[in-house]
Amino acid sequence: MPSLKRDQVELTYELAGSGPPVLFIQGVGVTGEGWRPQVDALSKHDASGRLGELLHIPTLVLSAAHDRIAPPSQGRALAAAIPGSVYEEFAASSHGVAILDPAPVNDRLATFLRSAE
Question: What residue ranges define each of the domains in the chain, with the CATH number in brackets?
Fold first, then answer.
């Protein structure tokens, strides 16, 4: 299986499907200056004009109601830009909900993935 390694983090992944790969990682353990390259790259890249291309890909956008880093307004805007997407918000959660309270997030993801089969 292919893998990527940076510092003390190794990510093993599997290629599946067709088309360009898509990979989303949240919470990879970087601190301090480790975030600077990511923030710099994100501030220079805007792919929002391509979100319509996700039309035929089942998409679930999850937000946390009390997230001040990625506020729900951004999640709603993202969902609105992806045709046919589903938006849901965890009412009692904040940033890092998938790490701090994984059970409801995992349950919702499992339900969504089963419905998309």
Answer: 3-115 (3.40.50.1820)
Confidence class for position 91, pLDDT limits 50, 70, 90: very high
Span 62-83, pLDDT tens digits = 999 999 888 999 999 999 999 9
Are 14 and 1 in contact, with CB atoms under 8 Å apart?
Answer: yes
CB under 8 A, 24+ apart: contacts of 18-25: none
